[in-house]
Amino acid sequence: MKAHPRGATAGLYAVLLSATAAAAQDAPAPPRTWTFGGVALEGAVETYSAYYGMRGTWWNLSAGKAPDFDTDRSFAEFWVHPKLDATFKLSDGAEIYGALSVAATQTLGADPFDYEDEGAVRLGSTVLGARRTTGDWRYDISLGRQRFTLGTGMLLAMGSSNGYSWGGGASAQRRVWGQSIVARVGTPEVTVTGFALEPDEAPAARTDTRLRGLALEWARAEIGKAGISWFTVPESKAIYPGDLAPLDFIDDGRDGLDTWHGWLNLTAIIPAVPTLGLRAEFARQRNDITRADGRRDPMKADAWLLGVSWQGQALPFAPKFTYHYASFSGDDPETETYERFDPMFWGNGLDNWWFGANGAYSWLNANLLVHRVIVDAYFSARDIVQLQYVHASVDEVNSAVQFGQGARFTSGQILVGVPEPELSDEIYLQYSRVVTPKLIATGFVSHSIPGDGLKATAVQGTDSWTTIGLGLTANF
Predict the structure, then answer these.
(1) What is the per-residue pLDDT across 186-205, written as a single tens digit (0 to 9) for each?
(2) pTM
(3) Which residues contact 104 (CB under 8 A, 6 or more apart)?
(4) Does residue 5 lie within any of the structural domains?
(5) Is residue 4 part of a domain?
(6) Which helix (H) or strand (E) segment is 79 a member of?
(7) Domain for residue 3, yes or no?
(8) Which of 69, 79, 334, 369 gets the most CB atoms within 10 Å of its CB?
């Protein structure tokens, strides 16, 4: 594997995570309201500012092929998001609604991918929809640029690119899909959703992917949710790493992909242990891919996650303990079947599908096995501390880990990936202070130690990768 200077493989920025608290990022801006006849308007301005400092970036893997890459770097990112929501009541239980926003990002300094001082002002949400409630039934249809997360974000969450010439790659605030149609019908607990999505992709990361699908979900606020979905990709130019990456890629690998995805996230289901939480998710992908020599082979890829959590509400600081184990299949180089999992547009924070503040820059939820332990402690209603440990390894050795990087010659052969399974061990410590509902401050430090797999591919030696970050959410 290697560091990724300007012009790096498209698709890597889809996983650049916000290393601050998910609660801080998603805190809703307090609205200002106006009413004109039957039209109600709500306006707000959301802002996020962050500073990141790094040492040993990419574990010094750049030294072999990009010796001029500076592994010590610092940069700042800024996000400003003015938005306006509107509703117009048609009759009892029926209304038309819309949303309009503008999203501006700016990076000062060079980020880990060597994009320097980049930024852009672009449309955020532009949504028009109608909804109605009749008895126990709810109907909702919307179209335009909007957020959409399937389940917990295992596959469909980040509808927009972050980074590249748009800036703001580490904070990853852009999330709306470029075009969408979302139709929902349901009762208070059961919802059926049909969706058609097109991502909003930066020019350097374009895959021209189109998505169509259906989802069925049961949800109850005091217990949790469970659901299942199916979606297909009728069109995409996304490439897959092939057998001899980076020499051999599979063009249009995602085109025609079919995916089944299910999720279950429940708490308070055992009366004797009311704070026990259980989580299970899976995804199954099937397709046919065309290799560089024209041969057609089946694609059979799978991923799953199992998790358990418990909160000791009677203990000091009411700690919550969480353990996750996740598996994303890698391609076995000894078979004709293509098994590498396609993570698509995943995200939704460090508690979900980003595995480590540093690791999630690199481990793209394909050919990956992860153990994650999380401890949350509540020192007060305003002071929250989180500690994470993430152990990452590969599902298949000598198989692409990122996007085909790390090609090396061994005994006359070209190999990719790592020859030993261990990738990294990362410790992450975060403190969040809720100053007011409008103002949330976050600080973190993350220390990632390279495993035997990385060390075996880096003849120049490896370093630990340490990142510190400071973030401030201010809403008006």
Answers:
(1) 999 999 999 999 999 999 99
(2) 0.90
(3) 78, 79, 80, 81, 119, 120, 121, 122
(4) no
(5) no
(6) strand 73-91
(7) no
(8) 79
